[in-house]
Design a protein that fits this description.
single chain; 312 residues; alpha/beta; four-stranded antiparallel β-sheet; 8 strands; 50% helix; globular
Length: 312
């Protein structure tokens, strides 16, 4: 029997209309959208369905939207007879989705929590002063050295270790510009700013993490029914207190995604399923470990096809 892990995407995979095929195919998804609207006190479902895209892309809305999407798709999977996976993980914001789907966090309060998380992240650094950029073609250690050289009295750090030769850096915008120039001199194939104004997962997020810790202290956390390997330690937290503490550190620490996928593979996983909009994590998985059967549940047809493969 195939051993599966489910992984949940974070910011960047959102799009207007991303739940439309699921809402048509599954009443469970429509019910989840209604539950989210009630929890938040505004119509997030209509924003996801109709936009405007500029509003959906604001981090305070993107984060609850992606959480809603991942939870809705996972519930649709279970309702259609899909098996509960052996392991879970989530990329950045997706880790919150994983903990909700694993039963460690409750859906409604977590929606409100991640909206606050987005607000805190944006407020931590004035708009225009921070940013993120993707760098292709340098290994992790070489890029860390580039960042040290380029930082000066500012901050620029490798923060998303997504795949071999694909790393995201974050920090002060001017320091990122210097780092991109040095990276090109060292042989990077490409360096490009991402459409994100907050320097996520950098040390500049420390003030936001302090506020997030206060909010997380008010959130009930249980031991998950499915083990979740976290971004910050590449480990499974053993207690609710460890989960809470790891989520706080995650905000200002690198996302060690390559190691997370390697860790899951070491547990004997054969298939890795991306649960939610887009195919970003599926593509990264194929770059990290081609032995894994990677697939995405990005629309209702993909979910139906995955169910057929599970029962074949």
């Amino acid at each position: 029997m195939t051993a599966q892990a489910f992984v949940f995407p974070g910011q960047g995979s959102q799009s207007v209309g991303m739940l439309e095929s699921f809402r048509v195919a599954s009443s469970v998804v429509e019910d989840t959208v209604a539950e989210a609207n009630e929890a938040l006190g505004f119509d997030l479902g209509t924003m996801i369905a109709d936009g405007p895209v500029e509003q959906l892309n604001l981090t305070e809305y993107t984060q609850p939207a992606m959480l809603l999407a991942g939870v809705a798709v996972y519930r649709a999977w279970l309702a259609a007879g899909g098996e509960r996976p052996a392991w879970m993980a989530g990329h950045s914001l997706g880790e919150y989705t994983a903990f909700v789907c694993a039963g460690a966090l409750e859906f409604a309060p977590t929606l409100r929590l991640v909206r606050l998380r987005g607000q805190l992240m944006q407020a931590a650094v004035p708009e225009g002063e921070g940013g993120m950029a993707a760098v292709l073609g340098l290994d992790d250690d070489a890029l860390r050295e580039v960042c040290r050289e380029a930082a000066g009295d500012e901050v620029v750090q490798a923060v998303n270790l997504n795949a071999p030769g694909q790393v995201v850096i974050a920090g002060h915008r001017s320091a990122i510009e210097r780092a991109l120039a040095v990276a090109r001199e060292r042989g990077a194939r490409r360096g490009v700013f991402l459409p994100v104004s907050a320097p996520c997962h950098s040390s500049l997020m420390a003030p936001a993490a302090d506020r997030l810790a206060e909010a997380l202290a008010e959130i009930a956390i249980s031991l998950p029914r499915v083990p979740v390997v976290n971004n910050v330690d590449v480990a499974v937290a053993e207690t609710p207190a460890e989960i809470r503490e790891a989520l706080v550190r995650q905000l200002h620490s690198p996302v060690r995604w390559v190691e997370c996928i390697e860790w899951l593979a070491a547990q004997g996983i054969d298939r890795l399923v991306e649960c939610g909009p887009g195919k970003v994590l599926t593509g990264l998985t194929r770059r990290i470990d081609r032995r894994l059967d990677a697939m995405s549940l990005h629309d209702a047809d993909a979910l139906a096809a995955a169910l057929e493969r599970e029962t074949a």
